[in-house]
Design brief:
Blueprint: H1 6-15, E1 36-40, H2 44-56, E2 61-65, E3 71-72, H3 77-81, E4 91-92, H4 95-99, E5 103-105, E6 109-113, E7 118-121, E8 126-128, E9 131-134, E10 138-140, H5 150-155, H6 165-176, E11 182-186, H7 197-212, E12 217-221, H8 230-241, E13 250-253, E14 261-265, E15 270-273, E16 277-279, E17 282-285, E18 289-291, H9 293-297, E19 322-324, H10 338-356, E20 365-375, E21 378-388, E22 393-395, E23 401-402, H11 409-431
Parallel strand pairs: 1-2, 1-9, 2-5, 9-19, 11-12, 11-17, 12-13
Antiparallel strand pairs: 3-4, 6-7, 7-8, 10-18, 14-15, 15-16, 20-21, 21-22, 21-23
Helix pairs in contact: 1-11, 2-10, 2-11, 7-8
The structure holds flavin-adenine dinucleotide.
Length: 433
């Protein structure tokens, strides 16, 4: 990292999730109603965009359409699975948004009629918009794993890749498992939400097993041959969980060596891999992903199943005045993370505000940091700053970086503390309070 030391960078980005993007003052124009922005999805991207549009210009009418009364963050949900924290601690409501004058309609958006400029909802009729922001997260490609579907995931083999009841189910299954059992985790192929997430989950579960069921094992059946922060994760697995020895708590099978899974039998807890069959006591299959369903219904996706956007504003390249942010959008090289969704939401909020006032969008800067906990006291991270080169988002050379492999225990402990303070900061940036 040049110019700015890694330590300072982490302090800036970890300590203040609101570091982003650009000044809002240039679009803060008071006065008459400046239009209606309808936001589909009250998760990380949607709730952040709503708050930043309203904060910049209270005259803009902002409506969120979201089917659930509460949102459970995926970040820190791995700590719920391992029993380090409660499900309630990752649950957030919309009271603070409503008190800012944001309207929250508890409903499901079925379609966007981009010609008539309205959102079609299940129960609340059509909602007209001047600008529509779509942040529905991901959906799953169920068809890629035989025998695995939404019903099996909800009742027997949770993916827990959307936090909530499945997070609690996976935790309960671990608690009920005998000592000596096998936990199978099957991470998906790229691209997917939270690239380090499955491997942090393996760490969290290993930490639980080490302390509670030490004869047990975790088998990671990976669709890929390499993964995010692999050097740091495997170093941590060696240090804490005996990785690479006969007594390792964790075994990782790469895609090329049989990790790719083809089918699941929920009755017998058997997985059919590309090379052999595996039996597990607790199974966590994370399926391949695509943009949320509303994006498909509304003609916002490309042939790969994700939503192409103008990366300066996040306006869809398929429909004018419709913007897509968060996991569903094509924002690479930004990863599909909550931090990215929060950053993208601020860029989009500013662009939408500018366009409602007939002004040009600013040139954005975006930030991402992803923390992972190897143990509650051993944290690692990857960070990067991004800018817009006139055509697309690109990494800023010399910015960001990884936790050094040779960092001290004290630094790792600090990174774990930063991870938790990042959680507190970003959730209050998204949901207020
Ligand atoms: C285990 C795990 C750990 C993670 N840890 C981190 C981390 O440490 N750091 C990090 O930065 N990121 C992390 N992430 C990733 C992060 O959670 C996502 O990238 C982020 O939530 C994406 O935001 P989003 O707005 O695109 O989607 P979401 O936050 O999922 O929000 C989507 C919302 O849209 C709603 N919705 C969907 N369809 C409709 C519809 N048709 N009508 C109305 N509403 C709809 C949903 O109900 C939901 O509330 C993690 C993910 C997982 C799975």
């Amino acid at each position: 990292m040049s110019g700015i030391s890694r330590r300072n960078f982490i302090q800036i980005t970890g300590g203040g999730a609101a570091v982003s993007t650009m000044g809002f003052s240039n679009i803060l124009l008071a006065g008459k109603s400046a239009g209606h922005v309808v936001i589909i999805g009250g998760g990380v991207g949607g709730a952040t965009a709503a708050r930043y549009i309203k904060r910049a210009d209270p005259a803009v009418q902002v409506t969120i359409v979201e089917p659930n009364a509460n949102y459970f963050t995926c970040f820190m949900s791995n700590e719920v699975i391992s029993g380090e924290r409660s499900l309630d601690s990752i649950k957030f409501g919309y009271k603070n948004l409503e008190s800012m004058g944001i309207k929250v309609v508890q409903d499901y958006a079925s379609n966007i009629d981009a010609k008539k400029k309205h959102v079609v909802t299940k129960k609340s009729g059509n909602i007209a918009y001047d600008r529509c922001i779509v942040s529905p997260g991901v959906d799953f490609k169920w068809e890629t794993i035989e025998g695995y579907d939404a019903e099996v995931a909800a009742t027997k083999i949770p993916h827990a890749w959307k936090a909530g009841p499945q997070t609690a189910l996976l935790h309960k299954q671990l608690q009920a498992m005998k000592d000596g059992g096998t936990v199978i985790i099957a991470p998906p192929p790229n691209p997917f939400r939270c690239p380090p997430g499955p491997y942090e989950r393996a760490c969290q579960i290993a930490h639980y097993l080490k302390n509670n069921k030490p004869k047990s094992k975790i088998l990671i059946l990976d669709a890929k041959d390499k993964f995010s922060k692999q050097g740091l994760f495997t170093q941590g697995w060696k240090k804490h969980y005996g990785y690479g020895t006969d007594n390792s708590l964790i075994e990782w099978v790469k895609g090329a060596e049989g990790g790719i899974i083809e089918g699941v039998d929920a009755k017998t807890n058997t997985i059919t891999g590309s090379v052999e069959e595996y039996k597990g006591d607790v199974i966590n299959v994370i399926p391949a992903q695509k943009a949320g369903k509303i994006a498909f219904n509304s003609g916002l996706v490309n042939d790969k199943g994700w939503c192409p956007v103008n990366q300066q504003t996040f306006e869809s390249t398929m429909h004018k005045d419709v913007y897509v942010i968060g996991d569903s959008s094509v924002a690479s090289p930004l990863p599909k993370s909550g931090y990215s969704a929060n950053s993208e939401a601020k860029v989009c909020a500013a662009a939408v505000g500018a366009s409602l006032h007939g002004k040009p969008a600013a040139i954005p800067t975006l930030v991402n940091t992803c923390y992972s906990l190897i143990t509650p006291d051993d944290g690692i991270s990857v960070a990067m700053v991004y800018n817009f080169d006139g055509k697309k988002i690109q990494k800023v050379k010399g910015s960001g970086g990884l936790t050094p492999m040779d960092s001290s225990e004290a630094m790792r402990k600090r990174e774990a503390r930063y991870a938790h303070s990042w959680f507190n900061n970003i959730t209050s940036d998204i949901f207020g309070g």
